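Subject: design request, 409 residues
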C-alpha cells in the first residue's frame, strides 16, 4: 500500500521566489487545459488528447514570447499539472455517468492566484534527490533544508511541495510499504460510540473527553479575524492580518490531527478489531450542531483507523447508521424505543439493569459488528434504595445472584 510522509521545508528567500514561479506556471497550465477543452466543446470539435495539449500548451507555448517564462521551471511540474487537469475531467465525467463512487462532483474550475494553498509535484523524471546532507534537491529550485522527523521506510516515488494557507512549506513523499501486523492476534475487539460530549466511548467503559480545539480557540480566532477588516484592501498590512488568521486556524487543525493520530494508533495497537458506526456526517453538519460536528472531525478519525488497520493487520467494521444502538439493552437485548438526548442513564424494564446511554451504545455497536464484548461497562449498578419491610430478611448471597451487575467485575 502507499502512504504519504510529510516533512517541513524551510526554503530560503530565493528558493521561495523559485517555488512561487513553479506554483504560478503550474496554475497557468492547468487553466489553459480547462480553457482549451471548453473551447473545443463549445465549437463542437473533438476533445484534444493529452499529447496534443502538451505540445500546444507547453512545448509550443515556450517558443511564444508571451509564455516564454514557462521555461524557467521544471518541465515535469508542467506535465504533472496537465495530468491533474485531465484527471479532474475524467473524475467529472465518471461522476456524471455514475461509475464513480461517492457524491457528485462538478466540472473542473479555473485556479486563482488568490488561493492561499499551492502545490507542485515532482516525479522521478524530474531527477530530484535527497543530498547526503539531508536537503531536498529540486530542479531549478536548489537544495531546500528539510526538518526530518522520522526515517523514510523506502525509496519515495514522487515528492509534492506544498505551501499551505499559513505560508508554511511541506514536502510530501509517496512511499510504497508492506503491511506488518503488530501486537498479538488474541487482542480483544472494541466498539466505539462517537459523540460530542465525549469524543469516543468504548464498549469496555472507557470515555475519552472531546478536546474541542475549535471551541477553545474561538476568542483568539475572533480577534484575528477582525483585524483584516480594519486594513486597507490590497495593502501589505491586510496580507499580514490574513496570514495571522491562517496561522491561528492551522494551529487548531494541527492539534486536532495530532489528537486523532494518537488516539487511533492507541486503539489499533490495543485491539484486534474495532467497530464504529457509519455516521452521516454531511447531514449532521447541516444542523445547529454543525460547528461541534466539524470540530470533532469524526470522518478524519475513522479514515485514520481504517488505513492503520490495513497497515498493521487489524480490522475495522462499520455498522449501519440506522442500527438502534441507543434503544436496545446490551444486557438482555430488549428494545424499548427512542429516548431524548437529555436522558443519559436509563433502566431496562425487562432485566432491571441501569444503563449508561453512551457505553450501552458502544456495546451494541460491538455486538452488531459480531465482536465479543468482554467487559461489563455497558451497564452500571442500580441506585441504592431503602428495602421494603418484606425484603429485610433477604440473604446477601441471594441478592448477589439477582444483581444485574456483570459477574466479570
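Subject: RE: design request

Done. Sequence follows.
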Amino acid at each position: 500500500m502507499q502512504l504519504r510522509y510529510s516533512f517541513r521545508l524551510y526554503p530560503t528567500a530565493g528558493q521561495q521566489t523559485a517555488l512561487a514561479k513553479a506554483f504560478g506556471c503550474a496554475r497557468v497550465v492547468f487553466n489553459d487545459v480547462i480553457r482549451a477543452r471548453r473551447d473545443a466543446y463549445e465549437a463542437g470539435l473533438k476533445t484534444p488528447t493529452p499529447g496534443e495539449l502538451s505540445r500546444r500548451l507547453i512545448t509550443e507555448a515556450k517558443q511564444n514570447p508571451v509564455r516564454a517564462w514557462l521555461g524557467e521551471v521544471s518541465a515535469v511540474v508542467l506535465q504533472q499539472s496537465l495530468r491533474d487537469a485531465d484527471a479532474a475531467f475524467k473524475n467529472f465525467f465518471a461522476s456524471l455517468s455514475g461509475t464513480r463512487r461517492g457524491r457528485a462532483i462538478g466540472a473542473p474550475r479555473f485556479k486563482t492566484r488568490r488561493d492561499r494553498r499551492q502545490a507542485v509535484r515532482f516525479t522521478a523524471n524530474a531527477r530530484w534527490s535527497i543530498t547526503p546532507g539531508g536537503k531536498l534537491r529540486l530542479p531549478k529550485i536548489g537544495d531546500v533544508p528539510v526538518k526530518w522527523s522520522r526515517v523514510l521506510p523506502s525509496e519515495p516515488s514522487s515528492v509534492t511541495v506544498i505551501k499551505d494557507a499559513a505560508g508554511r512549506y511541506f514536502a510530501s513523499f509517496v512511499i510504497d510499504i508492506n503491511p506488518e501486523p503488530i501486537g498479538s492476534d488474541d487482542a480483544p475487539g472494541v466498539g466505539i460510540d462517537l459523540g460530542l460530549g465525549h469524543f469516543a466511548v468504548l464498549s469496555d467503559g472507557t470515555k475519552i473527553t472531546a478536546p474541542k480545539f475549535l471551541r477553545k480557540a474561538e476568542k483568539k480566532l475572533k480577534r484575528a479575524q477582525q483585524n483584516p477588516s480594519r486594513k486597507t484592501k490590497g495593502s501589505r498590512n491586510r496580507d499580514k492580518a490574513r496570514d495571522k488568521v491562517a496561522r491561528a486556524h492551522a494551529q487548531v487543525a494541527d492539534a486536532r490531527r495530532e489528537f486523532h493520530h494518537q488516539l487511533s494508533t492507541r486503539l489499533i495497537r490495543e485491539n484486534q478489531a474495532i467497530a464504529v458506526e457509519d455516521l452521516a456526517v454531511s447531514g449532521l453538519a447541516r444542523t445547529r450542531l454543525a460547528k461541534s460536528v466539524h470540530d470533532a472531525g469524526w470522518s478524519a478519525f475513522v479514515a485514520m483507523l481504517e488505513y492503520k488497520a490495513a497497515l498493521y493487520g487489524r480490522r475495522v467494521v462499520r455498522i449501519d447508521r440506522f442500527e438502534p444502538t441507543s434503544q436496545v439493552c446490551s444486557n438482555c437485548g430488549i428494545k424499548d424505543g427512542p429516548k431524548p438526548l437529555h436522558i443519559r442513564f436509563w433502566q431496562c424494564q425487562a432485566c432491571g439493569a441501569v444503563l449508561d446511554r453512551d457505553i450501552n451504545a458502544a456495546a451494541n455497536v460491538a455486538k452488531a459488528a459480531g465482536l465479543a464484548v468482554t467487559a461489563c461497562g455497558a451497564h452500571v449498578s442500580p441506585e441504592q434504595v431503602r428495602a421494603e419491610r418484606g425484603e429485610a430478611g433477604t440473604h446477601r448471597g441471594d441478592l448477589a445472584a439477582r444483581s444485574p451487575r456483570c459477574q466479570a467485575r
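The mean pLDDT is 85.
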